[in-house]
Amino acid sequence: MPKITGFTVRPVTVPLVIPHKTASGTLEVAPLVLLDIETDADVTGIAYAFTYTPIALKPLAGLLKNIETLAVGMSLAPRDVKAALEARFRLLGVQGMVAMALSTIDMALWDATAKIAGQPLATHLGAAPRPIPVYDSLGQMSPDETARQVEASLNAGFRAFKVKAGHPDPGVDAAVIRAMRKVAGADAWAAMDFNQAFAPVEAIQRMRILDAAQPDWLEEPVMFHDHAGHAEVRAAVQTPIQTGENWWGIADMCASIAAGASDLVMPDAMKIGGVSGFIDAAALATVHNLPMSSHLFAEVSVHLLAATPTAHKLEWMDVAGPVLAESPKIADGMIHPLPGPGNGMIWDETAIGRFAG
After folding, report:
1. Is 86 in the same domain as 179?
2. Which terminus has fewer CB within 10 Å in the chain: N or C?
3. Do 129 and 93 share a structural domain?
4. Listed range (47-51, 91-95, 240-244, 303-307) with the worst mean pLDDT
5. Given this model, what pLDDT does residue 24 score?
6. Contact (CB, 8 A) for 240 and 217
7. Residue 345 falls within a domain, yes or no?
8. What span, in angstroms and rounded, lies between the C-alpha atoms of 315 and 301?
9. Parent domain of 238
10. Do 47 and 76 share a structural domain?
């Protein structure tokens, strides 16, 4: 079996075309750690991590480089590598930055094994690559600005949209939903995200105002780990509740499901455990008949959702496009996987040089 021979780790800071404002803060740039895992099969698997804040960029890059010494010589078996590395971090715990590092390694290893097999990642996972329904993930804006952005998104091929909610005046959130559908059509799919900004009581008060505007889901109304709070909100409002992007592994997902915290789920490949963790999450969602969407990492997620029986929607927020030779194509509300074996990503080395940080 092929073995791991080394890591190449590169931190980059990619500017966002439009700053992404949320109720919990604004993202001005996309800090990414690019990972190449070299093998003795003359194949390189690639993936990236998104650290949200530049403060975490170099620490995560350093952690990945340090893990290289543990991984070199291991057989190219993603789940075996994941288990071995998790065992090395058992006393520290496999959450936060450790989880981000191990998930990124897992994604790169699955890319490598699919390339060795000469298959797209979805095929390597037992599914056929296919277009997936996609929504454009937009920031917090005024109703007028939202309308302009939705019009631009429509022109770019999107037919579904999500905006960040939580304006100081909750009535503005309802006005934003109406503005979206005024541009995109009365039956357009339109969701909102509170980004963990409120306690359950305030979230319920706000959502009762929003219920009349009928958003298709409301995401993370309370802190992600407050499963009981999510369940309380869910029981009090009509709008479907979505959560999952901040689950650190399958244990968090199990706790959320046990609490009845949400109507839908949307794990994040980097936090849930990479490709291996996402596929485990897909199985759990299937058992509980929960529609499952993805959070970020569109280039990999389009393959993962193809292998998810309850696949719902893919979130589009283009954080890595500026360092890729090609981005997935979006048309008529669907995202198409990149061509070629593995996840299809190819680095744009010239751009990486510009954004190195």
Report:
1. no
2. N
3. no
4. 91-95
5. 63
6. yes
7. no
8. 9
9. 123-336
10. yes
Measure Cα distances from 354 to 10, 51, 216, 322, 351 in Å. 12, 19, 40, 10, 5
Do residues 178 and 301 share a domain?
yes
Mean pLDDT of 233-238: 96
Catalytic residue list = 164, 295
Mean pLDDT, to the nearest integer, of 24-28?
72
User: Looking at the structure, do residues 85 and 160 belong to the same domain, yes or no?
Assistant: no
The total number of structural domains that make up the chain: 2
CA distance 234 to 208: 11
pLDDT, tens digit, for every residue of 82-123? 999 999 999 999 999 999 999 999 999 999 999 999 999 999
Instruction: Specify the residue for token string 């309308």.
Output: 147
Q: By the 8 A CB rule, do 271 and 247 touch?
A: yes
Q: Which two tokens stand for residue 291?
A: 């529609």
Instruction: Write the CB contacts of 262 (distance below 8 Å, at least 6 apart in sequence).
Output: 230, 234, 240, 241, 242, 243, 244, 256, 290
pLDDT of amino acid 49? 98
Residue 23's pLDDT is 61
Which residues pair with residue 330 across a beta bridge? 335
Closest CA to 216 of 268, 244, 245, 177: 177
Is residue 343 in some structural domain?
no
